[in-house]
Amino acid sequence: METTQGRPARLRVGVIGPGRVGSVLGQALGRAGHEVVAASAVSDASRERVAGRLPTARVLEPAQVAEASDLVLLTVPDDALPDITEGLASTGTDLRGKLLVHASGAHGYGVLAPATLVGALPLALHPAMTFTGRDEDVDRLANCAFGVTAPEQLRPIAEALVVEMGAEPVWIEEERRTLYHAALAGGANHLVTLVADSAALLSAAGVPEPGRMLAPMLSAALDNALRLGIHGLSGPVLRGDAGTVAGHIEQLRENAPESVASYVELARLTADRAINAGMLKPEDAVRLLDVLRR
Predict the structure, then answer these.
(1) Which helix (H) or strand (E) element contains residue 35?
(2) Which of 91, 100, 165, 179 has an alpha carbon within 20 to 30 A of 278's alpha carbon?
(3) Looking at the whole model, is its pTM more than 0.85?
(4) Using CA atoms, how far apart are residues 202 and 235, in angstroms rounded to an integer?
């Protein structure tokens, strides 16, 4: 594939799966100077995304999208990746020399093996960002990192594509890909659940605007965690306030029993990390862990 000063030349881009992620990446590649020529779209929502974000793309069948493109975005759900890749490879679609890019965090480039065997060039480019389907999604790429995994000889092209989209490439080894994704999913997805749970409990406690109360504290906590790690911790677990924690569990059992298990498990994990960091005194830890075992 031709390059210009170490960067991919102008490419014809196709999108198979123009959902929240695929439409954003296609739009970002278009902004970088590539031409989005085709997209597959079945649902009305997908067709609307193509029309709104990828206006230069013709709506075609997946095999036709691949044949019309130099770079094919396979932005389908994780579990669908093996089947769509096998389908393209086994039906005689000419994939020779084409960049085949998926955006799954859980997979490396190995999932594209059927296509690689017939000449495709596999890249795994996962944006470490959440996408809501709103217009600001594409602008957020400028402040995020991509987990990049590819055969070593394709690494410069993979990293250059990420830089062209305004983001930062971070190399992830193939065998570490699932661990990498578990870290991101645990942080981002569970954070949303925790915040939503806190807001619901505040509402139950009579707070009229939970988000307004939570925002300054949670913003500070996130900043502390990112800068200081476990040393940014505060609160009753760190202080070894077993009585306070016991009171929390009692109130949760009465008012939100579905939240008890997560509170206890997270308190245990917090205590373990605080003990290992030398932040929680052994005698306080004993009383606290006794409460968390009940």
Answers:
(1) strand 35-40
(2) 179
(3) yes
(4) 17
